[in-house]
Structures are given as structure tokens and as C-alpha cells.
Amino acid sequence: MKKISVAAHLSKSEVFETVGDFLDELGFVVSSKDLNRPWGGFFVLDESQILKFREHFFNEVGLTESQLKQKLSPKFLLVAPGARLSWQYHHRRSELWKLIAGKSSISRSHSDEQGPVQEMTLGEVVSLDKGERHRLIGTDNWGVVAEIWMHADPENPSDENDIIRLQDDYSRK
């Protein structure tokens, strides 16, 4: 499988260009992107490509036919060196994360108290339960994390409004 490489010295726009080119080369269609997040940003892929996305980035994860027919919101999170997402959880989704390039850490807990920070392992799937508190953390390099949302209620799928922030470095609610 084709690999992507990012380096700490790259600017945000250079990292986004690198990841965008990588997705283009693999034939993925980007439905939206946001490079204006204070911690980095993300690419959302076209939902119709979930099988291809799973095959490339989550081939060790078994998804049922029913799950594959649901909205799974295939996405790439790009976290900047030294930045971190909010300490958060969700009522309507669990998540699957996989570090595919660079370096990142994660903190997680089943209570509001932030858990220990652990370095993510390149290529290893992290499964976050619905309601589990979590935070993606940039270390000394950019981190590129593939993500799938597993909606608790497919008739009422999760969205960005399903982020319950317990702590945020950027004063967002």
C-alpha cells in the first residue's frame, strides 16, 4: 500500500497539500476539508467510497453489510505538532482511529478526568466507545489519523454538534 510522509518542519498548507495529493493518487474524492481548526484540520471523504477507505486503512476491522450501508463519515484528522483537540466525548457515536503517518498521542478515559497520554502506534486501530472521553494530541511531528464514525442510531447519525467538550485549549464550547 502507498504510504504518506509528513514532517514537523512542514507548514500547515504544505501538510494539507501533501495529504490532498496522497488522497488524489489513491483515487479518493474529498467531499469537504477544513484547514482552519486551531489544532490542524481534516479531510472528509465521499461517503460512497467507504469500502475503498476501509480496504486501504481499516482492512483488519470487520464491518457488517448493515454497517457498511450506514453513514460512516470517513475522515482524516491532521493534528499539528504540540496541538491537541478538545477533551471530549459523544452521545451518538463511537469512533475508530488509526495513525497512518507522522506521530500522535491519545488520552482516553471513561470518566471526565483525563487519562494518561499514550503514544499512538503507526498502523494500530484505536477503538473509542460511545461516551468514552478522548483527546488526540500532536507530539513533535504532524499526525495523520484515519477515522470512521460508528453511529449509535443510523436514523439519527452523529455530527459535529455531538461533540461534548469537557476542556478545550481554544475556549470553544
TrEMBL record:
<dbReference type="InterPro" id="IPR014710">
    <property type="entry name" value="RmlC-like_jellyroll"/>
</dbReference>
<dbReference type="GO" id="GO:0005976">
    <property type="term" value="P:polysaccharide metabolic process"/>
</dbReference>
<keyword id="KW-0413">Isomerase</keyword>
<feature type="domain" description="Mannose-6-phosphate isomerase type II C-terminal">
    <location>
        <begin position="73"/>
        <end position="168"/>
    </location>
</feature>
<dbReference type="Pfam" id="PF01050">
    <property type="entry name" value="MannoseP_isomer"/>
</dbReference>
<protein>
    <submittedName>
        <fullName>Mannose-6-phosphate isomerase, cupin superfamily</fullName>
    </submittedName>
</protein>
<dbReference type="InterPro" id="IPR011051">
    <property type="entry name" value="RmlC_Cupin_sf"/>
</dbReference>
<dbReference type="GO" id="GO:0016779">
    <property type="term" value="F:nucleotidyltransferase activity"/>
</dbReference>
<dbReference type="GO" id="GO:0016853">
    <property type="term" value="F:isomerase activity"/>
</dbReference>
<dbReference type="InterPro" id="IPR001538">
    <property type="entry name" value="Man6P_isomerase-2_C"/>
</dbReference>
